[in-house]
Design goal:
Length: 264
């Protein structure tokens, strides 16, 4: 049975032993996107992979989900599990949450892994897109949002060559409650600019980006790499926005190497 941390109704996996790795999924996904990494790394690390509020098996309250509030959910979960420090890996929206976590609690972060994400806030056009997506979710439900997002989330290689991955990603998105979609979309639209934070990041940071990512393409990662002092950038071939599932071996290798090189 999935463990649940009741104060925030949060479903999570907590497997393995060793230094902790906190895996934070993007929108509108769930901890299932990290399954290959959990399997590959659990023999050497303690892996904590929650479903963020509004996603997966976690509760989906009505209202806006600020990135700082989602980061506070993670802090409460780590406290509950007795995890003092962790490497925090965030995919896309999970990266926005990772920035919020680092901003609030840098002393609890041993390292950062930023996967297909960006530090910039939404611009006007981006916020209009969020409003349209909120309308789509309310009027036509999560399946319409999933159908709209899928072709932009995955590379053509994945869509054509790995239909089982495309199918799983669609199923995860289509199962997201409408209150979760709306809360996260509004939270992302309101999120602060994390560009000024980049130069203050004082932990080793691995930046991964799918070479075919059209949602958060390479220039966003170049920007993070240029500004984060101790960072390494790696392009993931043939992957779109979701390399943890599209190119799992490349992601596993990159994360494994990064974790091995961290100071103990
Ligand atoms: C995500 O994958 O988490 C979202 O596409 C991020 C965003 O919409 O900004």
């Amino acid at each position: 049975m999935t463990p649940r941390f009741e104060p925030v109704g949060m479903a999570y996996d907590d497997v393995g032993r060793g230094h902790a790795l906190l895996l934070v999924h993007g929108f509108p996904l769930s901890r299932r996107i990290w399954r290959p990494q959990i399997e590959a790394l659990r023999s050497r690390y303690r892996i904590v992979a929650p479903d963020l509020r509004g996603h997966g098996e976690t509760e989906a309250p009505e209202g806006v989900y600020p990135m700082a509030e989602m980061a506070a959910d993670l802090r409460r979960l780590l406290d509950h599990l007795g995890v003092e420090t962790a490497v925090v890996a965030g995919h896309s929206m999970g990266g926005y949450v990772a920035f919020a976590f680092y901003r609030a609690l840098p002393e609890r972060v041993r390292g950062l892994i930023l996967v297909d994400t960006r530090a910039e806030p939404d611009n006007e056009r981006g916020r209009r897109g969020r409003a349209e997506m909120i309308r789509l979710a309310r009027e036509r439900g999560a399946e319409a949002v999933a159908a709209e997002m899928l072709p932009r989330l995955l590379s053509e290689e994945t869509l054509e060559g790995k239909p089982e991955v495309a199918d799983e990603v669609y199923q995860i998105m289509a199962a997201t409650p409408v209150s979760g979609l709306v809360g996260a979309l509004q939270g992302m639209a309101d999120r602060p600019d994390s560009v000024p934070l980049l130069k203050q990041i004082a932990v080793p940071t691995l930046i991964l980006v799918g070479e075919k990512d059209v949602l958060t393409p390479l220039p966003y990662s170049d920007r993070m790499h240029a500004d984060i002092p101790e960072s390494h950038l790696q392009l993931i071939p043939r992957s779109g926005h979701l390399p943890s599932l599209e190119a799992p071996e490349a992601v596993n290798d990159a994360i494994r190497l990064f974790l091995q090189q961290l100071p103990k």
